[in-house]
Design brief:
- The chain is globular, with a radius of gyration of 16 Å.
- The model has no long low-confidence stretch (mean pLDDT about 95).
- The chain has a single domain (about 35-170), classed as Roll (Pnp Oxidase, Chain A).
- The longest helix has 8 residues, at about 20-30.
- With about 180 residues, it is mainly beta.
- It has a 7-stranded antiparallel β-sheet. Strands 1-11-12 form a 3-stranded antiparallel β-sheet, with no helix packed on it.
- Helices cover about 10% and strands about 40% of the residues.
- It binds flavin mononucleotide.
- Flavin mononucleotide binds near residues 35, 70, 74, 103 and 104.
Amino acid sequence: MQTQAGHQATDIKPTADTVDIHEFRLALAQFATGITVVTACGPEGRRVGVTANSFNSVSLHPPLVLWSLANKSSSLGTFQACTHYAVNILTADQQALATHFATHIGDKFEGLDFDTGLGGCVLLKDCLASFECINRSRYQEGDHTILVGEVVNFKYQSGDPLVYHARQYFNGLKA
Ligand SMILES: Cc1cc2nc3c(=O)[nH]c(=O)nc-3n(C[C@H](O)[C@H](O)[C@H](O)COP(=O)(O)O)c2cc1C
């Protein structure tokens, strides 16, 4: 179900037709991010997980985070229906997990060692941080759906992050 609470759309005419998508992607890729794997378990017990660098913080009180998922993702139905999801922030040593969860394959969790969180979401081992979230609201915008999660549990440790910039992974921030 689409939640529209507080969603204000603008009447300004779109410029989408005038934007070169290829150039737009290259420009966006200049924004360096960390890498997350977001996981959930649907009502029917189907586990899903996707690599996402669209993660960001929204609010401290209440504690809210957001990320966005392509509408064409095979995981969208599960992320719309699940009660909770987990955002796992990857370390510099976890590039293989980033690649794995960015691949469209059947069961992405087969052979993986993990803990189970609220609503059956998957907490990957040895991450920099994990946030367990209530699936609070969803906003379809363009070809993606923005998901806002209310954080109810989290854990973290210090370490080097996996960084993504200009379509390349960097193993940590230190020069
Ligand atoms: C570095 C990186 C970041 C990504 N970030 C996102 C993202 O924020 N949102 C998204 O929908 N897809 C993102 N993707 C693509 C998904 O991880 C990929 O399409 C995945 O296969 C989707 O899983 P599914 O098809 O099994 O649902 C990213 C991929 C990479 C490599």
